[in-house]
Amino acid sequence: MNDVDRCLICGEVIPEGSQVCTTCRNKYDIVTGETEEMAQELRDIADVLKITEGTDTNIRKSMESILRIADRLERTSNGKKRR
């Protein structure tokens, strides 16, 4: 049961080969071609968070802040592209 594919956003079980479930795809307005790019970004974020798991609290807080800033900048950038 551990070898099933799961949505990279919510963790829901998904069909083999998929990256994101239909619910998240609709919720976040993900175009199918964007899914792989988004999956890579989520893997990169997960890697950063794994690195910071065992680090000093100040470093961990700094990394979390950097990730939030990057997320806001990306959302702002994506909002301008859609208009």
Describe the structure using short key phrases:
mainly alpha, 83 residues, 61% helix, 3 helices
What's the topology here?
Layout: H1 22-27, H2 34-52, H3 57-82
Helix pairs in contact: 2-3
Provide an overview of this structure:
The chain is mainly α and 83 residues long. It has a domain at 33-82. Helices cover 61% and strands 0% of the residues. The protein has three helices and no strands. It has helices spanning 22-27, 34-52, 57-82. Helix 2 packs antiparallel against helix 3 (57-82). The longest helix is centred in the last third of the chain and has 26 residues, at 57-82. The chain starts with 21 loop residues before the first helix and ends with a helix.
Outline:
By secondary structure, the protein is mainly alpha-helical. It is 61% helix and 0% strand.
Low-confidence stretches: none
Instruction: Sketch the major β-sheet.
Output: none
Shape: flat
Mean pLDDT figure? 77
Strand portion: under 5%
Written as H for each helix and E for each strand, in order along the chain, the element string is HHH
What share of the residues lie within helices?
55-70%
Number of helical stretches of at least 4 residues? 3
Label the structural class: mainly alpha
Distance between the termini: 43 Å
